[in-house]
Design goal:
This protein is mainly alpha-helical and about 475 residues long. It folds into two domains: about 350 residues, no CATH class; about 100 residues, Serine Threonine Protein Phosphatase 5, Tetratricopeptide repeat, CATH 1.25.40. It is built from 24 helices and no strands. The N and C termini lie far apart (about 55 Å).
Length: about 475
């Protein structure tokens, strides 16, 4: 009976806290998926499945309802998988309301990370079937690649080796899939520095680890994008910053070594909840720490699975201190309640992100793109200039400034910005940028040639001028 009551409390808490998200709209990738016509639904069950995995969104309320349910199930699974006791109950509560989990609990496009986390937790509830659940995780998200190592902290420690072996044997094309990913997939679309594997990348790895570690406990800055290490791997200036051995590196080194040493002690002398929780966190966040960058440099959805371990570690520290439990719960709830409207729709995602960090240049860029598309060119110019203040060497900002000034009739200024953008090209132009870049170059050249001939008017279809994000 006690277990049922606790499960009911967890479920009701999620319903109360996230109920208003049912009336939210689409944000970011949600918008594109809501406009898709493919795949065509074969039947009612196929439609539900496509909606569940997020390939198409038909109704925003239905999509948000599915997200609410999956996040709630994950919280219930935490209680069931981590001991069914006071510690796992507090862990589930803290995890449920931590604002850093919003990209799983609210953002529709982050749902697959939640589903993968549910399957990972099922591994610990049904350890003898863990290989099956582990294989299934990869069909939703890749965040559980190293999760079996967490079994080293349980009596089923041998599953840490058995699961990957079974997975590789039962999935013959896995190596081919990863090779294709490297050659033609997401890794191919990133820059050379992002994909490079070399010892100096331990520096950005440890800096990223520290950033995620602190954010997991104190979600002080939240958003679709983060400034920290943003641009690493995409230009020389940010590469230099990324490889700088600053305070973030040293603090990351201390934290990482501390967790590593405590984990070794846990293996040989027995685990404490704190040790195991931090081990869980580290194992599952390591792949996102920019040693090889095949994604955003920082994103909150990558924290979702690892956050289970951090919540377990925090719960183990405060379990016997009611005042600290109250402080964490109230603090998380207040922070969550006031920041969750960030995911109301695409407009507020940008506005709230800028409020979270005035120097978040990429969101100023996004703001300008939206205004440009709406033909508010002066407003777009203001936002692009604001982004330029915070990052004057960014290729996309410079290009968009060139585009906007050109549309506003200043071809000289447009040429100046475009030349600066060309100087800041790193590796090669992205496929999404190259056509726009070449088109603007041709248009500016057309104006310059006409001016050289003494012509005062040039026929150019400004509707074809593109901005990039």
């Amino acid at each position: 009976m006690e277990h049922m009551q606790r499960l009911a409390i967890i479920a009701v808490l999620n319903l109360i806290v996230y109920y208003k998200t049912l009336f939210y709209g689409y944000v970011g990738d949600d918008v594109e998926r809501s406009e898709r016509k493919e795949p065509v639904f074969k039947n009612a069950w196929h439609r539900r499945w496509i909606q569940f995995i997020g390939l198409r969104h038909i109704n925003s309320m239905v999509s948000h309802f599915i997200s609410l349910i999956t996040h709630t199930i994950c919280c219930l699974m935490i209680y069931l998988a981590l001991g069914r006791n006071n510690l796992s109950f507090l862990t589930a509560i803290l995890f449920s309301i931590n604002p850093v989990n919003m990209q799983g609990s609210i953002w529709i496009s982050g749902r697959n990370y939640v589903t993968s986390s549910i399957l990972t937790l099922a591994m610990f509830i049904f350890p003898k079937l863990s290989w099956l659940f582990y294989t299934a995780t990869s069909h939703f998200a890749v965040n559980a690649w190293f999760a079996p190592l967490v079994f080293l902290g349980t009596k089923y420690w041998y599953m840490a080796g058995i699961i990957p072996a079974v997975w590789l044997v039962t999935t013959n094309n896995r190596a081919t899939l990863y090779r294709k990913l490297w050659e033609t997939g997401d890794l191919k679309t990133t820059n050379t520095e992002m994909r490079a594997i070399k010892i100096p990348k331990i520096i950005p790895f440890l800096k990223t680890y520290f950033y995620y570690f602190i954010l997991a406990i104190f979600p002080w800055t939240l958003g679709i994008e983060h400034n920290f290490l943003r641009g690493f791997g995409t230009n020389k200036t940010d590469n230099t910053k990324g490889y700088k051995m600053d305070k973030f590196f040293w603090m990351g080194l201390i934290l990482f070594l501390g967790v590593a040493i405590s984990s070794v002690m846990g293996i040989f002398k027995g685990w404490t909840p704190l040790q195991w929780g931090l081990f869980w966190f580290t194992i599952n966040i390591a792949m996102w720490c920019n040693f090889v960058t095949y994604q955003q440099q920082i994103s909150e959805r990558y924290l979702y699975l690892s956050q289970i371990g951090m919540s377990y570690a925090i719960a183990s520290l405060i379990l016997n201190y009611p005042i600290l439990i109250t402080a964490f719960i109230v603090g998380y709830l207040i922070r969550l309640w006031y920041v969750m409207p960030m995911y109301t729709n695409d407009y507020w995602a940008v506005e709230y992100s800028i409020c979270e960090s005035k120097k978040m240049y990429y969101m100023w860029l996004m703001r300008g793109v939206k205004k440009f598309i709406a033909r508010d060119h002066m407003g777009a110019l203001y936002d692009f200039n604001e982004a330029y203040v915070h990052k004057p060497y960014d290729l996309k900002i410079l290009y968009n400034l060139a585009t906007t000034t050109f549309v506003l009739g200043d071809a000289v200024k447009a040429r100046e910005y475009l030349d600066k953008a060309r100087i800041n090209i790193y590796d090669e132009l992205e496929e999404t940028v190259k056509p726009a870049f070449e088109q603007l170059e041709a248009m500016i050249k057309q104006v310059e040639e006409a001016k050289a001939r003494g012509e005062t008017q040039v026929q150019i279809d400004l509707a074809k001028v593109m901005v990039v994000k």
